[in-house]
Specification:
By secondary structure, the chain is of the alpha/beta class. 28% of the residues lie in helices and 20% in strands.
Length: 344
């Protein structure tokens, strides 16, 4: 791993084009070109920016959100497909690592998906948010541990999480243990109010300190007109305000540029990788400061599937895989798993 180089990074705060996959994708491509003109080598876009974050699910009860949910299905992104092809071409054209959030459609389900493209245009990772948060569970399915990966890219070792996955310390630790150098985080923005941005700042600065890595965080932005499109209720429109914090944080927990709290723009900073060593020589939470003899993380890194033709798929419940038994009597006699000792 190279700890001597410097990388120029950007966090893009953008408004989506509501109800338009093509429109939002075009804005992403324009932002990549703009960032390239400033010498950016890695750019991060907001959570499920393409086609748009499902704000409707935050302000509408489930019984009323069927039409909006169906619209999202119609505009969702297939991976691979035309959207990923276009972003791949842009990444390759500008030699830029691109991290973008999409509403992915696979069959009859939608997922909160993070895509990481290397600077040669290769789609290195498609990962899904492991647990959608609160209202989001009416919109998206769950992800699995296969996406908790840190990848070698042209910009360094890159990991990614979405929104409140940062409040799952074990998910963060899974990336920390793989020695991420740049952590790419995404939040929806334009929600909850200033307290959401304040919490975001604390959470991301803490991860930078604990992981000893850079954090590049991007949030979305809604215009007043877009809020009116989502809901005519002025009180509910207030719930679609604030909560924006597009920023870049050093391994010492220091903002490297002015965070963007309103409007669209690029937060750009230089990432001097020597700061990683400066932090980790004092506190390497997955190295000299770790105690694996006392505390370890068990990570199920395999991909879930509803179809197991080989009898090897992981069993989410932790129960025995009953396909391994020849008859019901044998399965009934199998001991249940012992309770696990507490691990972290």
């Amino acid at each position: 791993m190279d700890y001597t180089k410097t990388v120029r990074a950007a966090a893009a705060q953008l408004s989506p084009v509501l109800h338009s996959r093509e429109g939002t994708t075009e804005k992403v491509l324009e932002a990549i070109a703009e960032a390239a003109s400033s010498g950016v080598e890695l750019i991060v876009f907001p959570e499920t920016l393409i086609p748009y974050y499902p704000y409707f699910s935050f302000v509408q009860p489930p019984v009323l959100m069927g039409k909006a949910h169906m619209q999202l299905y119609e505009q969702a992104v297939e991976v691979p497909g035309p959207v990923t092809d276009a972003i791949s071409r842009a990444a390759r054209s500008y030699s830029m690592v691109v991290v973008v959030g999409v509403n992915e459609r696979e069959g009859g389900s939608l997922y909160n998906t993070q895509l990481i493209f290397d600077a040669d245009g290769t789609l290195l990772l498609k990962r899904r948010k492991i647990t959608p948060t609160y209202h989001e569970r009416m919109v998206w399915g769950q992800g699995d541990g296969a996406g908790l990966k840190v990848l070698e890219t042209a910009a360094g070792r890159v990991g990614a999480l979405a929104c409140w996955e940062h409040y799952n310390p074990l998910a963060r630790f899974a990336l920390m243990a793989q020695h991420e150098q740049i952590h790419c985080s995404q939040f929806p923005g334009s929600m909850v109010g200033q307290i959401f941005a304040d919490q975001m700042a604390v959470t991301l600065r803490h991860h930078a300190l604990e992981s000893g890595c850079f954090v590049v965080n991007a949030t979305g932005w809604l215009t007043p007109e877009q809020k009116q499109q989502i809901t005519p209720d002025e009180n509910l429109q207030k719930a679609l305000s604030g909560g924006c914090y597009s920023a870049i944080i050093s391994p010492e927990g220091v903002p490297l540029c002015n965070p963007i709290a309103e409007g669209e723009g690029l937060a750009i900073a230089e990432l001097d990788f020597s700061l990683i060593t400066k932090r980790k020589r004092m506190m390497d939470s997955v190295g000299h400061y770790a105690r694996p003899d006392l505390l370890q993380l068990r990570h199920t890194a395999s991909q879930w599937s509803v179809l197991d033709t080989e009898g090897t798929a992981p069993v989410a419940s932790g129960l025995p895989n009953f396909s391994n038994f020849s008859n019901l009597s044998e399965a009934a006699a199998a001991p249940l798993p012992k309770p696990h000792t507490q691990q972290s």
